[in-house]
Amino acid sequence: MPEKKQDTYQEFIKGLWRDNPVFVQVLGMCPMLAVTNSAVNALVMGGATFFVLVASSFFVSSLKNWIPKQVRISTYIIIIATFVTVTDFTLQALMPVVHKELGAFIPLIVANCMILGRQEAFASRNSVRLAVVDALGMASGFLFALFSLGAVREILGEGALFGFKLFSDDFEPWVIMILPPGGFITLGLLLLLFNWLKERKDRLVAQLDEMEIEPRFRS
Amino acid sequence: MQYKDPRLLVQPSPLLKQQMTTHQTMRDLLFALLPVTFAGIWLFGFSALLVILASILGAVATEWLFSPAEQRAARLVDGSGVLTGLLLGLTLPPALPLWMAFLGGVVSVGIGKLIWGGLGQNLFNPALVGRAFLLATFPNAMTTWSTQASGEGFFQWYPSNFALPFMQPHYDAVSTATPLGLMKFEQQSTALPDLVLGNTAGCIGETSGLLLLAGGVFLVLRRDIDWRIPAGVLLSAAIFSGVLYAIDTSHYPDPLFTLFSGGLLLAAFYMATDPVTSPLTPRGAWIFAVGIGLLVVLIRIFGGFPEGVMYAILLMNAATPLIDRYTQPRVFGKE
Question: What number is the ipTM of this complex?
Fold first, then answer.
């Protein structure tokens, strides 16, 4: 079964890098920009999305044969909304402070286009195992993106990471970084960085092709 | 094929070529800004020179770093990076830490210009993008105005200039308020001769009204800039504030104060006229200029900030493509 194993691995890894929901597909921008002013907020938001995406993908994929095509979107939304409600109440009970800071953005996970997109494009067409693996990959990619944005913004905006001071007390905070424009600027620069890395890799692969050398890690 | 002495030159049109090149315009602008720069250095001491140099260095280094290797030399020689850095430096307070000035230069050229595709492609004035970024990022440092060194303290510098990168500046010098700040928060006017000669607190290059005006007139006469834009900005600002002054002389500043305080002159002649970010048509230039003048007075008098020139220009920059579209001249022979 080596073929199949490779397949599973590919489905997982594509969400992390090649089809990263944020840096490549540019999906889920609303939580991406709104709640990434600190690393903790970003991680909690990413974790909540992670749970909702994996659980809904599992259910949508299991139920795909019983969902009528005409009402599939509303069915997906109901399934997603169930898990969002679970997440919302859990966070409210366990982390009231963070829950308050995230505010309306936890219920808004239901409208996250990345989650609905995975149900429509992948979970409803593939086996349960692949759907879960795909959801795990995509959710990890989303978490990674949220965390990198939140970390950059918190380090520059407050000189801290997870609330721990990284610099001496003399650090001059970059106020703009914890304000909305800082989110846009940081996201733009991160997109620039990832596109640049991707282009460089593509160029390298093209060069290898020209030299007729089989690259080992062609995706 | 080239002939040394062409008796009859046969070439395709255009036969009349404009002598003006980008290099020429940039050089004229730099020359026109030299007196203002020297005045700033004279008034605020050596620190002003260091701040300007730091911002120019940031701008030029970014231009060099993010240009394709084969275009680097050409892009540096056209002088636009130096000009952006100089314009930014002139709008910074003299006691600003040098690392902040450097960062401003990096943002000006990086986010203000290169990210849009380089010279001629940007939507917003690069120097003002850098300044807006700095003002939003370091609001305290950007609004701490030091008293002037004015001659006797020429070789003194402000210790806050040498704050380590990412660290807070410590201000030893006595800080004061700009004429606009005095007007806004204490209803206190400043004498006109002080404003015209530059004997006030403020940004490095904005205080000496007379030199700014002289450099601006030089540029207009050389036809480096469109005369309509400074004329429109200054006239509309003067008329609007004149109307307000006529309504209530005790509350609102008089038109001359409006013209000579803050960065209005610097911005009207050197920043609003940026050919890349201002409308192409004469009618569009008037609309653009009058919009800036009105916004400046609106923000200064009714807004939260004492100075509004930067935001006025950035807002009208955003409107420029629209203005260009609606003022496009009719093609001959078409309805």
Answer: 0.81
